[in-house]
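In this supplementary section we document a worked example of the pipeline. Step one takes a protein sequence of length 447 as its only input; no multiple sequence alignment statistics are reported here. Step two produces a three-dimensional model, which step three serialises into structure tokens for compact storage. The input and output of this example are shown verbatim.
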Amino acid sequence: MVGARDQFGLPVSTGTEVVALWDAVVDGLLNAGGLAEEGLLRSMLEADPGFALGHALLGWEAAAGSADADAEAELLQAEQLVAGASERERAFVAGVRATVADPFARPEPWAAYLTSYPSDLLARFDHAYSIRFGYRADHVDVVRGVWEEARQVNGDHPLVLASRGFLAQETGDLDLAESLAQDALGVRSDSVPGAHVLTHVHFERGRHATGLSWLTSWCRDRMPTGSEFAPHLSWHAGLHELALDDRDAVLARLGDLAGPEASKKWLLTNGATYLWRLRLAGLAEADDDPSSGAIGERCRGLAAAPLSVFVGWNLAIGLGCDGDLTTLRKLAAGEMDAGAPGVADVVPAVAGAVADLLEGEPARAADALTAIRPETYRLGGSRAQREVLEDTLLAALVQAGRTTEAAQVLTERLDRRPLADDSRRLAALTVPMQRQTRLTQTSNGLP
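The serialised model returned by step three reads:
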């Protein structure tokens, strides 16, 4: 049955009905932002227990924490089953094994595979992820090339349009980003990647009321059921609410993002960072923890060997929320397995800065965060996510009385995108000095 082909024209060794299930599972991963229906993947394997690609995908998702399975057992089974399949399938299983073992290896786990099978968007998406989150100084240009090749091969596939749009908003080309996001949604109105990019554009343009209204409606009417990306879009809504100074909505959102029912997968990058922002803004007390300790527990479980530089600095923020100075100081001293790119360079600095801020040493915190600021674009995630580091720097500068430096940071941010709250902070920082103390104490840390 090697003659069967998937939606990208690639050979798959299974029957037509199972190919349709495979295409549906892959489509969900590419469009819904995650494995929306693990049951569909398992149904595929029940229909063809010998389908090597299905076992490889289940093992891959299990390794990522998105499926309830034994990752190693599934990968071993895939490797045994694929021996008689096509060369492409053998290469795919090998690529999955390589990316699970080390997603940031050089050369990249999927580089050779994509040279032979460039239409595989599942492999391409992971390839781009590894580059973006691998602390690479050249990641913008490399990722641009990755998606330009996809445009030539896959045309106006919604994921390709949205991925190009995401890169455009990261580099400040908001007109192009918005156009590409709208194109993606025009091809497929339930495109989670397209909606995600448009949400970023609304935020970067300072269109918070419009952005919140649009996002709320889209999530209600268009978002695929069970999308793993839903909690992250909720976080985006929370940023709009914070910018609009809707305190009741902000606190309710905090419960959704960091409370007992919050997504464990997104607990750090959504919940902890949102809680930290609210503490810096004086909207949450230092001992407020809607997670009832889950944030700290999750961070301590990852601190011994941060999976990436992105995870590393996020868990430092989470440990700050938990008030765990012991673990923060261990990270600041480099007491961890720092094998992932950038971890040794960045995580000690962020962890030390958070600890310094908690212990009343804002000048040291400001120095550390200022030192890594030029490299922030390499730290993974999006500008909106990395902005929490800038907020932490602002808090440290203000607490240290370095208002001129804080004003410069705010000015640079306002040059990038308008935000009424930032404008108020800047005004507070640039009034005559005799009024400075009173105005900078209007919130807990931020002006």
